[in-house]
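Record format v2
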Amino acid sequence: MKKTFKIILPIIVIISFIVIMNAGGYLKKPLDKEDDVYYYLKAIENNIYNEDWEMAEENLVLLENAWDKVLFRIQMSIEGIRINDFFAEMAHLKGAINSRSREIGIIEIVTLIEVWNQIED
Amino acid sequence: MNEAFTVLIRGIIGFFTLLIFTRILGKQQISQLTLFEYVLGITIGSTASSLTTDLNTSAWSHWVGLFTWSFLVYLLQIVAIKFPKFAAYLNGEPELIIVNGKIMDKKMKQLRYSLSDLLEQLRSNNVFDLKQVEFAVLESNGQLTVLKKSQYETVTAQDLGLKTDYSGIATELIIYGIVIQENLDRVGLTKKWLLDELKNRNIKSPKQVHLASLNSNGELYIDLYRDYHN
């Protein structure tokens, strides 16, 4: 029994580590509407195409909140560089929405969606 | 992103992964490693360190690197056991540097092994006079093994024709104040016997004992945390 335990324990530990390191793709999926990053990205994209800047600003705040929630879950398994990219692109998007620039807004939201898709897909 | 928290978790993953993998790879003294094995160890350690602190890349990629290197070392160990000639090809073979008291200077030149290296390693084997050396072997890990001429070897009981008692390994019965019941069972003694022995030495509890060991002659050695008795 002791010998079995000595073999099983390290196997369980290694499997746990593998799960933690690869769980990012699953953990980025939303648990509820409040952390549904993709929903808010698409909503903002829609707002920018329709030049509905007030809604875009509101959805951007909700996106930031959702991203904070998801980040806590996925930060263990995602490359830091992708996280930094997402933050940088969100800042660009904020600038585009503030300046009411449709063209720049479209570029930034499309880029942001692509960065999100690349996170542990 | 909470970098400190991420580094903490990745550090725990790296630490215990390294612990498990090195445990699987087996125990070897640092002094017995070949240069290749030494460099391998540094590489594996460096990979574990990157897993912990390199937040720009995923932990998984570093972990796979760690696993790959450790697995290859494990594979090499298996192959070396099954194919000794391959092990010799990989690690090199021991070389005779001194044969019947004569230094093999051509062999030394071939191995790029200097006289100062030889003399230094002889000194670390407590040999200060080359006249005492019969054979010296340069092992594949770079260590020098020396066989002295028989007249310079230390005298043993066998040389004097003396009979000696059997000398076995001492068994630890108490470590850091904790009684090792498994060892007591192995030597066929009970906890009551041990406590009585402690009582005879004015030791009230095993918790006062730093180390207690029993040798093959049945003599109990006790070291206390403090000197409670004369």
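The radius of gyration of chain A is 19 Å.
Chain A touches chain B through 18 residues (CB under 8 Å).
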